[in-house]
């Protein structure tokens, strides 16, 4: 065996011995040392952490974003709830639009009324305020009355003479009782069954007629002021920059009234007519049953 062959044999034996040593050490890994593998794991974990952390951070970011979104949604829900809640008696400011100006100092509105300035948003609010004051029978200043007269002319309101005469003769028997007439100047005269009617009796009837005329004229003026209020409210509706349904319109006027201490939505009095016993009922009417009183001994 030459030198070269012996060298090759030694190398082969060395490699076999090394392989045997490595095989006998199962816990040994050439690249598995703690220094690298731990670092590699830590790096992998960190990378995964970054990745996961990125996801986690992203998750956190997403979580934060979701949290913010949730907050935003909650705020929107709160806003919606606020709208619903405010709809119970008042409208949300976003629904009132230009009519948030109702919060203006009432002195500013009264100044517009006194100056006869009913232009624009404040002017429209001043008009409906004046109309509500008139319709409610509030005492007006001379300036307010002058402004009101500019809208509603009541100088020619006069009670109908026939309506006065009908009131004087109501409940009387036209065949036997004295009957009275009223001329265009409101003067009373006896027109039938006038035996025993002297100047004193006529004077008494004249005073009664004057009171009736005054009441009828007051009712006519009140009706005119009520119509003025309706017209003024319609102006608010027509000039609104926000669409409002009927219920919201009523809420808007209720809120105005609350702020000004006035009633902008007066309810009409319903007078229920009770049929007289023996009187024929109109079609569709329900007869009123007599009250039955139970007597127990």
From TrEMBL:
Domain of life: Bacteria
Keyword Signal: yes
Gly residues: compositionally biased ranges: 52-64
Biased composition (Low complexity): 65-87
Residue ranges, annotated region (Disordered): 52-97
Keywords: Signal
Signal peptide positions on this chain: 1-19
Name of the protein described by the UniProt record: Uncharacterized protein
Organism for this UniProt entry: Albidovulum sediminis
């Amino acid at each position: 065996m030459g030198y070269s062959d012996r060298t090759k044999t030694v190398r082969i034996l060395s490699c076999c011995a090394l392989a045997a040593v490595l095989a006998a050490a199962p816990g040994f890994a050439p690249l598995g040392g703690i220094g690298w593998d731990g670092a590699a794991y830590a790096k992998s974990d960190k990378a995964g952490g970054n990745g996961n952390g990125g996801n986690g951070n992203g998750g956190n970011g997403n979580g934060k974003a979701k949290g913010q979104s949730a907050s935003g949604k909650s705020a929107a829900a709160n806003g919606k709830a606020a709208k619903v809640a405010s709809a119970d008696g008042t409208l949300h400011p976003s629904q009132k639009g230009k009519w948030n100006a109702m919060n203006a100092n009432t002195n500013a509105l009264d100044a517009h009324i006194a100056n006869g300035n009913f232009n624009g948003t404040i002017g429209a609010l001043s008009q409906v305020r004046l109309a509500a004051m008139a319709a409610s029978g509030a005492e007006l200043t001379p300036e307010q009355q002058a402004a009101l007269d500019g809208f509603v002319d009541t100088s020619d309101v006069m009670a109908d003479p026939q309506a006065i005469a009908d009131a004087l003769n109501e409940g009387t028997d036209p065949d036997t009782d004295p009957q009275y007439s009223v001329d265009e100047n409101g003067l009373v005269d006896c027109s039938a069954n006038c035996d025993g009617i002297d100047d004193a009796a006529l004077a008494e009837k004249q005073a009664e007629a004057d009171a009736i005329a005054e009441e009828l004229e007051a009712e006519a003026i009140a009706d005119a002021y009520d119509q003025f209020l309706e017209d003024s409210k319609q102006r608010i509706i027509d000039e609104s920059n926000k669409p409002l349904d009927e219920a919201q319109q009523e809420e808007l006027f209720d809120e105005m009234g609350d702020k000004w201490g006035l009633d902008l939505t007066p309810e009409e009095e319903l007078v229920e007519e009770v049929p007289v016993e023996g009187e024929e009922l109109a079609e569709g009417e329900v007869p009123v049953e007599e009250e039955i009183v139970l007597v127990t001994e």
